[in-house]
Write a structure and sequence with these properties.
Layout: E1 2-6, H1 12-24, E2 30-34, E3 51-55, E4 70-73, E5 89-92, E6 108-111, E7 124-130, E8 144-149, E9 165-168, E10 179-182, H2 186-199, E11 209-213
Length: about 230
């Protein structure tokens, strides 16, 4: 059974409380939230198997700290969507604003449109698939996980990158400090193939280039001072 929560008659606090209680109960229920009207911090802190569909655009920090739940936004999302996500799947049918998926530890963030600047900053294990383009400074200090971009990437991609893997099918305006193009080996093609399939993305792994850390900034070295 699917429960509908209408935000013209139910306020944000009550909506989030209902969703969090259902997630904690591990009931694997399904909820539809109507008339969100860009509300902030929706469906945050869900800690359990739950399906949530939001019928419209959301404001900042939607689906933050998500764990196990499946959250779908049928619209665009404001800044910080799925920030510090732990597991589960968050899908944005429209565009995502800046720092989408920041500090994410796990799960899949699937953005069907474009993502703005700083997408995936400080990634710690999350997988992010962007079907459109991403803005500047994306994957800044990204530590672990995969960022897949079917479109183009803006300036300073992967600046100060650690061990996250970046796959871009389109053009990269510029690479950030210590980020370089790397060989696409068979294991990377397999990883990419699986992520594209999971995200329902119409692309072939062979169309992408891989970028990663040159590993010259792990420790300060005076010979690399110009790169900082």
């Amino acid at each position: 059974m699917t429960t509908t929560l209408d935000m013209t008659s139910t306020d944000l606090r009550a909506v989030n409380s209902t969703l969090q209680d259902a997630a904690r109960a591990q009931a694997n229920e399904a909820y539809v939230v109507t008339n969100p009207r860009g509300a902030h911090a929706m469906a945050c802190g869900l800690d359990g198997a739950l399906s949530v569909t939001i019928k419209g655009p959301t404001g900042y920090y939607c689906a933050g700290m998500n764990k196990e739940a499946t959250v779908t936004v049928e619209g665009s999302a404001g800044p910080g969507v799925a920030e510090n996500m732990m597991s589960g799947v968050v899908t944005i049918e429209g565009d995502a604003s800046q720092y989408a998926g920041a500090t994410g530890h796990g799960g899949l963030l699937n953005i069907k449109g474009n993502a703005s600047s700083r997408c995936g900053i400080s990634m710690k294990g999350i997988d992010i698939v962007v079907h459109g383009n991403i803005g500047h400074m994306s994957a800044f200090m990204a530590q672990k996980g995969n960022l897949v971009v079917l479109g183009d990437a803006g300036d300073a991609l992967g600046d100060s990158l650690y061990e996250a893997r970046l796959f871009v099918r389109g053009k990269v305006k510029s690479l950030g400090a210590d980020c370089i193009e790397k060989e696409m080996r068979p294991e990377h093609l397999e990883t990419l193939r699986a992520l594209l399939a999971q995200a329902g993305a119409d692309a072939k792994p062979e169309e992408f280039k891989r970028y990663g850390s040159a590993r010259t900034l792990y420790n300060f070295n005076i010979d690399n001072a110009d790169a900082y």
